[in-house]
Specification:
Blueprint: H1 2-18, H2 25-30, H3 37-48, H4 51-64, H5 66-94, H6 99-107, H7 111-141, H8 147-200, H9 204-208
Helix pairs in contact: 1-8, 3-8, 4-5, 4-7, 6-7, 7-8
């Protein structure tokens, strides 16, 4: 539990430090449009590889097998690479950045479509955010914290650093979190495979040989 609480405190401290960069609405909403490419890339990747992949996917892998648990991560990884290749072309064609820009370019000033997209976007965003808090609650419960308390703690921490630093806080904490995932998940995967092999007489090759 001390590790978890230390991470929460770290994110709040990061939010406080980054709050000094926020002087205008542009700084708060889009980080002054000055985020480094590597930070933007990590933020986008962290948005894809959230609790659904790292918690839900792992749980699904335990229940159904390694490959079923990995399919979501593989698919999302491919979409990141594909987006990196074609997103610029779409932006040039539609002369826009956000999905509403593309819809307006393709279908014109349709109030129905813009309203429909806004509703779908809000519902999707709420579901994604809820998934992250649920994942945090599931992980934190392993440290002896009750699920509800953990969800509340995660919600409060995110609200605090977002309130203080806006997009700067979101982007940099995403960068930190994904960096830790890249560093530690391969180590955990290897150690987990060794434990499974030792306790159940199953090799990693046996686990990977069943794609469905």
């Amino acid at each position: 539990m001390p590790v978890l609480l230390s991470l929460c405190a770290l994110y709040i401290v990061v939010g406080y430090i980054l709050s000094k960069r926020v002087n205008t609405a542009s700084d708060f909403l889009v980080a002054g449009r000055s985020l480094p490419v590597i930070v933007v890339s990590f933020t986008i990747a962290a948005t894809h590889f959230g609790g659904g992949v790292f918690v839900g996917g792992i749980e699904w892998g335990v229940e159904k097998g390694v490959w079923p648990g990995a399919y979501a991560g593989i698919g999302l990884g491919l979409t990141c690479f594909i987006s990196a290749i074609i997103a610029g072309k779409f932006r040039e064609i539609a002369d826009g950045i956000t999905p509403p820009d593309f819809i307006e370019h393709r279908y014109g000033h349709s109030k129905f479509l813009r309203g429909y997209h806004a509703i779908v976007y809000i519902l999707g965003t709420v579901a994604i955010i809820a998934c992250q808090f649920m994942a945090f609650g599931s992980m934190a419960s392993a440290f002896g914290i009750s699920y509800k308390t953990a969800v509340l703690l995660g919600t409060v921490v995110v609200i605090i650093y977002t309130y203080m630093a806006g997009m700067w806080g979101v982007a940099i904490t995403d960068f930190i979190q994904l960096g830790m995932c890249i560093l530690f998940i391969p180590i955990i995967a290897v150690l987990g495979g060794q434990i499974i092999a030792a306790e159940h007489s199953v090799t990693i090759g046996d686990l990977l040989s069943q794609p469905f």
